[in-house]
Amino acid sequence: MQPTATVLVYSDDSNTREQVRLATGRRPAPDVPLVEFVECATPDAVLRELDRGGIDVCVLDGEAVPMGGMGLCRQIKDEVFDCPPVLLLMGRPQDAWLATWSRAESAVTLPVEPVEFAAALASLLRSRAALNA
User: Fold this and answer.
1) Which of 32, 43, 85, 101 has the CB geometry, 3.0–4.6 Å to 67, for a possible disulfide?
2) Nearest alpha carbon to residue 119 among 25, 28, 17
3) Rounded CA gap, 31 and 77, in Å?
């Protein structure tokens, strides 16, 4: 059985969650594990899943309503022990400073560009695997 990585995807927009799934495919790069998704449409669902454990990377939509992924990222970085790395989806490249403020490890712009997204996700999965090795 092949190893898997669990990626939490937070967005109130099912189309954004689908873009993430499609850009990732079965795995974002040949040298990282197969990916399983946990989809969340509310901040409370994200917190419940993180409390449950087993999440390798979080993908948070900075444009989500009622709570954007940037604010949620900052909250989980403060509150979740051994918080998984976060890939932030931003509405505009000019929002990069907000991604830094949120303490996200990586950020890409919406709409999801598959090659850019897959590279960013694979990088975070590699760094998480290295920490857990």
Assistant:
1) 43
2) 28
3) 27
User: Taking a C-beta distance cutoff of 8 angstroms, is the pair 83, 77 a contact?
Assistant: yes
What pTM did the predictor assign? 0.96
**CA gap 31, 11 in Å, rounded:** 27
CA distance 53 to 70: 21
| CATH code, 58 | 3.40.50.2300
The token pair at 117 is: 């997204």
Residue with tokens 């669990």, as numbered in its chain? 6
CA distance 105 to 121: 10
**Structural domain total, the chain:** 1
Q: Is the separation of the CB atoms in 63 and 91 below 8 Å?
A: yes
- The answer, yes or no, to whether the previous bond of 30 is cis (omega within 30 of 0) is no
pLDDT tens digits for the chain (133 residues)?
Answer: 668 999 999 999 999 999 999 999 999 999 999 999 999 999 999 999 999 999 999 999 999 999 999 999 999 999 999 999 999 999 998 988 999 999 999 999 999 999 999 999 999 999 988 777 6
40 in Cβ contact with 72 (< 8 Å): no
